[in-house]
TrEMBL record:
Origin superkingdom: Eukaryota
Natural source organism: Plutella xylostella
Protein name: Protein AAR2 homolog
Boundaries of every AAR2 N-terminal domain copy: 13-144
InterPro entries hit by this protein: AAR2, AAR2_C, AAR2_C_sf, Aar2_N, AAR2_N_sf
Region (Disordered): 155-221
Biased composition (Basic and acidic residues): 179-193, 205-220
Presence of keyword rRNA-binding: no
Any one Gene Ontology BP term: spliceosomal tri-snRNP complex assembly
General function of this protein: Component of the U5 snRNP complex that is required for spliceosome assembly and for pre-mRNA splicing.
Length: 410
């Protein structure tokens, strides 16, 4: 870090004090992570803006590391944030630190300073690109209500009323656990005269087909019904299921099935502004990349697929797609290698939808700076990762229209 930057961060940078953290705990900020020593007290010189603080407790006897936990926080200039470690829960304490305690630490900053590690400034420029559209308000809106983002969801048992297998029929309760297979077999064992017009005369009960209950069904029935502990789930925007307007003509149904701009419009309507879609894409990616949340990865993938499936919206929301290209380009650059390999080897939906997105740009009238960015993105993927995007003007084998000869069909 050059001296001018260091001086500026000393003046304007934030400070995160984390007291009582056990030695060898995995602690990190943004994309950097360390194992703490006994002198660790926190991080200093944090650039103003959004940051992701994360940690994992480590069992010093077995070497086992707990699933990662963390939180996003928007640091103001010179902000002084203090948290405590709770030994009983082996987690960050949820208790608020009194203003008097915070002030004492500020007054003792000269002695505290040598126990604070400097922010890893070499990651700052890339970090800003990864979270450029995540505002403080958006981060708070998408984070769990309790503020803690966890790699593993906290689960609890459902009540009888919440269980998906529990149903009520008339005045009697019918549990479809152990009783369901029995009830199914009985329903397929009626006498011929009770089975309706489709029954075969003279067919014996023994020859009637019975629904088999597999071992997997039995094992699944024995599993407990669990749900996320209230306040612990990430609060992503639900992607609308509607693909076309109600009462749409058959031709419009076909159009909207091929072009999901209508679905994107519905999702944008749920945001304060269109670019919050990109902010949510960035938030989901960081919760996956840093927070190790598979739930976040699935949402990121769904958003990428939706944005790559639009045609009309590219022209209407040029700024949104401009930032989409900038965002996904740096995201793929930071994606773990095993996920990149899976994208190509298995030709999963992300790879297919990127091909579809580039094809849309190829056949439509996308022009100017946006087209230049799309072409550069495609070329970079080909050069760095050897991804094949040739033949964009030709339909994929499984996407070609099926021609039916009506005369032969008759």
């Amino acid at each position: 870090m050059d001296q001018e930057t260091a001086k500026q961060l000393l003046l304007d940078g934030g400070t995160f004090v984390f007291l009582g953290v056990p030695q060898e705990t995995e602690f990190g900020i943004d994309m950097q992570c360390w194992n703490t020593d006994e002198d660790f007290r926190g991080i200093k010189m944090i650039p103003p803006g959004l940051h992701y603080i994360h940690y994992s407790a480590k069992n010093t006897k077995t070497g086992d590391v707990a699933p990662r936990s963390g939180f996003m926080h928007f640091f103001e200039k010179k902000q002084f944030l203090v948290k405590m470690w709770d030994k009983s829960t082996e987690d960050m304490s949820t208790e608020e630190i009194s203003e008097e305690s915070v002030q004492r630490l500020k007054d003792n900053l000269f002695n505290l300073d040598r126990h604070l590690g400097p922010y890893p400034y070499d990651i700052w420029q890339k970090w800003k690109l990864l979270c450029s559209q995540i505002t403080a308000e958006l981060a708070a809106k998408l984070s769990p209500k309790n503020g803690i983002i966890r790699a593993s969801l906290e689960l609890m048992s459902m009540t009888d009323e919440e269980r998906p297998r529990g149903v009520k029929s008339g005045s009697q309760d019918s549990e479809t656990t152990d009783q369901e297979p029995k009830a199914t077999e009985e329903s397929t064992s009626k006498e011929p005269d009770e089975a309706g017009d489709d029954a075969v005369p003279g067919q014996s009960e023994a020859k009637k087909p019975k629904l088999r209950v597999t071992q997997e069904d039995k094992e699944n029935a024995m599993l407990p019904d669990l749900k996320a502990v209230p306040g612990t789930s990430l609060r992503f925007t639900a992607i609308p299921r509607e693909r076309f307007p109600a009462g749409a003509a058959p031709g419009d149904v076909t159009k909207h099935s091929l072009d999901q701009s209508y679905t994107l419009e519905l999702m944008i309507a749920q945001q304060d502004e269109p670019l919050h879609i990109i902010g949510e894409l960035q938030f989901a990616y960081l919760c996956f990349l840093i927070g190790h949340s598979l739930e976040a990865f699935e949402h990121w993938k769904s958003l990428v697929i939706l944005l790559c499936s639009c045609d009309d919206a590219i022209h209407k929301y040029r700024s949104l797609f401009f930032h989409f290209i900038r965002t996904i380009e740096v995201q793929i650059d930071e994606m773990p290698e095993e996920f990149l390999a899976d994208i190509v080897m298995n030709k999963n939906l992300v790879y297919k939808k990127l091909r579809e997105f580039f094809r849309t740009a190829y056949v439509s009238k996308v022009d100017g700076r946006l087209l230049t960015m799309i072409e550069r993105f495609k070329d970079n993927l080909t050069d760095k990762l050897q991804w094949d995007f040739t033949g964009l003007d030709v339909d994929e084998e499984d996407e070609r229209p099926v021609v039916v000869n009506l005369d032969e069909a008759e």
